[in-house]
Amino acid sequence: MTSTGKQSAALGADFLRHELQEAAPRATGVEGYMEHDAAVYRTLLESTRAIPWKIDWASMEFAYVGPQIEALLGWAPSSWKNVQDWAARMHPEDRDKVVEFCVAQSKAGTDHEADYRALTSRGEYVWLRDVVHVVRDERGEVSALVGFMFDISERKKTEEKLAALQRELEALSFKDGLTSVGNRREFDAVLQREWSAAQRHGSPLSLIMVDVDFFKSYNDYYGHVQGDACLKRIAGVLSDAARPGDFVGRFGGEEFVLILPNTGADAAREAAERCRGLIGAAKIPHERSPFRQTVTASFGVGSVIPAEAGDPLAFVNFVDTQLYRAKDNGRDCIAAGKPAG
C-alpha cells in the first residue's frame, strides 16, 4: 500500500474510532478498546476500500469525507461541502429516487443503504453503495448521518451479466427447441394476454391451427432427421406468412398454431389461405403423399370476440374441431367457423 493509502486508512480508522466513542461515551473501556484495536479498523478500511463520511444534519454539510474518495472519483475531499455536492454528482436517472429515499429514511431515523451511479471528475460513472447510520442526540433527535461509500462497480457488472443470462434463458424457455418458433408455454401465455386484451377492447381474435398432412408417413419414409428438417421449413414458411404482431408457435408434434389479434373471420381465412399457398409453393418432397407428392397441411380456423365469461380453452377446442373437420374433408384444405354464442 502507498504512503497516501496508509494515511487514508489511518484517517479513516481515527474517524471510525471517534464516531463509535461519540455513539457510546459511557461504555466501559470503549476508548481503550478502540486504541487497542486501531489496527483492526485500519485493516478493515484497507481491505474493503470503504470511504467513511459524516454529514451534520442541521447544516447538511459534510463534517468529514475520507481522502480515499479522490482516488476513486477524482474529486478532492475539500470539494464535498454539502449534500448538494453529493446529489449533483449523482447520475440524473438515479438522483431523485435516491435523494428522496435517503432523506425519508434519515428523517425517520432509519439506517439504510442506497445504490447509485456517481460522476467522476473524468465524466464517467462509478456504481457506489452508501451504507448510512443515523446518529441521534440525547433528546432522540437526528443529529448526524455517518456512513461508508463502497465501490460496487464490479458487482453491478456481474449482476447485469447474470440478468442478461436470465433474460436469455427466459426467452429460450418460451421457444421450441427444434423449430425456434414459440412453444406451447408461450402459446398459452400469448393466448391469455390477447384474449384479455380482446375482452377489454371488444376486438376480434382469431386462431389458426395447422397440421402437416401424412407426417407419420413422411417420417417412416424419410427418417426422423429429415422429418425434423421438414418441420423447421414449415415453421419458417408460417413465420414468413405471419404479419407483425401475429404469434406463430409449435403446438406439438406436427401441429402449429397462429394467434391473430384484432383479426376477424374473413381476414383469418385469408391468412390461412396465404399459409396454405406458401406451403404448397415450397414444394417440399413427400413421396407418400397423394397431393402431388409434396408436403401439404390442413387448417382449422376460428374467430371470436371474447365475452367477459368466455373461456380461451374452449375456443382452442373449437378451432381444433375445425382442424379435424378439414382432415375429414380430405386434408390440404381449410375449415373455418365461429363458436356459438
Explain what the structure shows.
This protein is of the alpha+beta class. It has two domains: 155 residues, PAS domain (Beta-Lactamase, 2-Layer Sandwich), CATH 3.30.450.20; 164 residues, Reverse transcriptase/Diguanylate cyclase domain (Alpha-Beta Plaits). 49% of the residues lie in helices and 22% in strands. It contains twelve helices and ten strands. The chain has a five-stranded antiparallel beta sheet with strand order 2-1-5-4-3, sandwiched between helices. It has a five-stranded mixed beta sheet with strand order 7-8-6-9-10, sandwiched between helices. Helix 12 links the parallel strand 9 and strand 10. Helix 1 packs across helix 3, helix 9 packs across helix 10 and helix 10 crosses helix 11. The longest helix has 21 residues. The relative contact order is 0.08. It comes from Paraburkholderia strydomiana.
Q: Identify the CATH class of the largest domain.
A: Alpha Beta
CATH overall fold name of the largest domain: Alpha-Beta Plaits
Q: Ranges with pLDDT <50 over ≥5 residues?
A: 1-6, 23-31
Largest sheet: 5 strands, antiparallel
Which structural class matches the secondary elements?
A: alpha+beta
CATH architecture descriptor text of the largest domain:
2-Layer Sandwich
